[in-house]
C-alpha cells in the first residue's frame, strides 16, 4: 500500500499547533475491505469478475444496495455559507468541518461518509448537482447551508430523491434539544401542554426546534428574531417565518420583543448567536430551563444562567448538558440505513429524541439531562428507535 502523510513546513508556526498537526493531510482516508494479493483476487475485484456484478445491477437496480457500499454511505454536502458559526467562509474553508462530520459518522454510527463542498450558492445548481450525485449514496446530509435557502434545497431534494435527505443543522439540533427538554421538564415537574417556551432565533435551527417542539405537544412557543416576536401582523416576513408565526404567536396572541415574552417563561432556547441581558433571564419563571446553543459564546453564559435557572444546557463541551448533534445524526442515519428507508419522517425524528432522552431518564439530574456523545448506548439506541419508527411510518424497505 502506498502511504500518504502530509509533512508540514516546520518553519510555519502552525506546525507546532496540535490542532493543525491533527489536520495535516486531512482527517480521512479510503480503505479497502478486500485484499488484493495476486491475480485471482484482482480478477474478482476488478475485471473480468466485476462485470458480472455490474450486469446483475443493471438488470435489478436494487441490488446496488447489496453489492456496493451505497447502502451505507452518506454524502455530507455544503456550499460553505453557514459554517459552524464562522459564516460564509466558502467551500474550501468548509472542508475541514465536512471531513470532521464524516469522521463522526464513521466513529459513532459505523456509517461511511464523503464530504462534498460545492462551489456554488445557487439553489437550482445545488439541487441539480446533488440529484445527479445521488446514485452514489444511500443518503444525503445537508450541512452548513444558510437559511432560508436550506429549506428550499432540502424540500426539493426530498421530493426528488427516494433516499433520506436530512439537514442536520435543522433536524439534528432539534432532536437533541427535544431530548434534553423531555428530561428537564420531568425534573422540574412540568407538562408539555402547559410549558411556555421562547425560541430566540428564526434561522434553520430555530425553525426546526420550534417545529419538533410543536410536534411533541408543546403549544405555547414564541419565536423571536432581531425585530421581535414572529406574528402575522409583522411586515417583511419570509415564507418560513410567516408559517412559523401562524403556528406559534398567532395562536397564543404573544407579541413584542424578547424581554416581553421572556417574563415568566419556563424555557429559553437560544439559536441566534446574540446575547440576552441578565435582567431578562432573571425575569423567567421559577425553576427555569435555559438552553443557549451559540458557540463559543452562548446567548446566556452558563454562569449567568445558573444564577437564575435550575437547568442549563449549552453547545459547549466544557459545561454539562452539551447539546451536540453527534448525539443524533449518526444513529438516525444508522437506523435509516438499517431499514433502507426512502425518507426520514417526523415520526422518526420524534422517536430519535425519545430514545435519546430515555438513555439517561432514570439517572437524570440537573447536570445530566442528555447523555454524553461517548456513551456507547447512544447510536445503537437511536438507530433501533429510528428503524422501528420507519417501519411504523411505512418508509422502510426492510
Structural class: alpha/beta
Spatial ordering of strands, largest sheet: 6-5-7-8-9
Helix tally equals 17
**Total discrete domains:** 2
CATH topology of the largest domain: Rossmann fold
Low-confidence stretches: none
The Cα radius of gyration reads 22 Å
Distance between the amino and carboxyl termini: 37 Å
Give structural attributes:
single chain, 398 residues, alpha/beta, Rossmann fold, 2 domains, 5-stranded parallel beta sheet, 4-stranded parallel beta sheet, 17 helices
3D architecture notes:
- Helix content is 43%, strand content 11%.
- The chain contains 17 helices and 9 strands.
- It has helices at 18-23, 39-45, 49-59, 64-67, 91-109, 123-133, 149-160, 168-187, 204-215, 239-247, 249-252, 258-262, 278-282, 302-306, 329-338, 346-359, 378-393, and strands spanning 73-78, 112-117, 139-142, 165-167, 196-200, 220-224, 267-270, 288-292, 309-314.
- The strands form 2 sheets. A 5-stranded parallel sheet has the order 6-5-7-8-9. Strands 2-1-3-4 form a 4-stranded parallel sheet.
- The mean pLDDT is 95.
Put the structure in a nutshell.
With 398 residues, the protein is an alpha/beta fold. The protein has 17 helices and nine strands.
Amino acid at each position: 500500500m502506498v502511504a500518504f502523510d502530509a509533512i508540514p513546513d516546520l518553519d510555519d508556526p502552525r506546525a507546532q499547533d496540535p490542532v493543525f498537526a491533527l489536520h495535516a493531510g486531512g482527517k480521512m482516508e479510503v480503505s479497502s475491505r478486500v485484499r488484493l494479493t495476486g491475480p485471482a483476487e484482482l480478477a474478482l475485484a476488478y475485471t473480468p469478475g466485476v462485470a458480472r456484478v455490474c450486469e446483475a445491477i443493471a438488470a435489478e437496480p436494487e441490488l446496488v444496495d447489496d453489492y456496493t457500499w451505497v447502502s451505507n454511505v452518506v454524502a455530507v454536502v455544503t456550499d460553505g455559507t453557514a459554517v459552524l458559526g464562522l459564516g460564509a467562509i466558502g467551500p474550501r474553508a468548509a472542508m475541514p468541518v465536512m471531513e470532521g462530520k464524516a469522521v463522526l459518522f464513521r466513529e459513532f454510527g459505523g456509517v461511511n461518509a464523503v464530504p462534498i463542498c460545492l462551489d456554488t450558492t445557487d439553489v437550482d445548481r445545488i439541487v441539480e448537482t446533488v440529484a445527479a450525485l445521488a446514485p452514489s449514496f444511500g443518503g444525503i446530509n445537508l450541512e452548513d447551508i444558510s437559511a432560508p435557502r436550506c429549506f428550499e434545497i432540502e424540500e426539493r431534494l426530498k421530493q426528488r430523491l427516494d433516499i433520506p435527505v436530512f439537514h442536520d443543522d435543522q433536524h439534528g439540533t432539534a432532536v437533541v434539544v427535544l431530548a434534553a427538554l423531555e428530561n428537564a421538564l420531568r425534573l422540574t415537574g412540568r407538562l408539555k401542554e402547559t410549558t411556555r417556551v421562547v425560541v430566540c432565533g428564526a434561522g434553520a435551527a430555530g425553525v426546526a426546534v420550534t417545529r419538533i417542539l410543536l410536534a411533541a405537544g408543546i403549544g405555547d412557543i414564541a419565536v423571536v428574531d432581531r425585530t421581535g416576536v414572529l406574528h402575522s401582523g409583522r411586515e417583511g416576513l419570509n415564507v418560513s417565518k410567516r408559517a412559523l408565526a401562524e403556528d406559534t404567536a398567532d395562536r397564543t396572541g404573544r407579541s413584542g420583543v424578547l424581554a416581553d415574552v421572556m417574563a415568566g417563561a419556563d424555557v429559553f432556547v437560544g439559536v441566534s448567536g446574540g446575547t440576552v441581558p441578565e435582567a431578562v433571564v432573571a425575569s423567567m419563571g421559577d425553576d427555569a430551563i435555559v438552553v443557549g446553543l451559540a458557540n463559543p459564546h452562548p446567548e446566556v453564559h452558563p454562569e449567568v444562567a445558573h444564577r437564575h435557572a435550575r437547568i442549563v444546557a449549552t453547545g459547549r463541551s466544557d459545561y454539562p448538558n452539551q447539546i451536540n448533534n453527534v448525539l443524533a445524526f449518526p444513529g438516525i442515519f444508522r437506523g435509516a440505513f438499517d431499514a433502507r428507508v426512502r425518507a426520514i419522517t417526523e415520526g422518526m425524528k420524534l422517536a430519535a429524541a425519545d430514545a435519546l432522552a430515555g438513555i439517561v431518564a432514570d439517572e437524570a439530574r440537573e447536570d445530566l439531562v442528555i447523555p454524553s456523545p461517548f456513551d456507547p448506548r447512544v447510536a445503537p439506541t437511536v438507530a433501533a428507535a429510528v428503524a422501528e419508527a420507519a417501519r411504523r411510518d411505512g418508509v422502510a424497505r426492510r
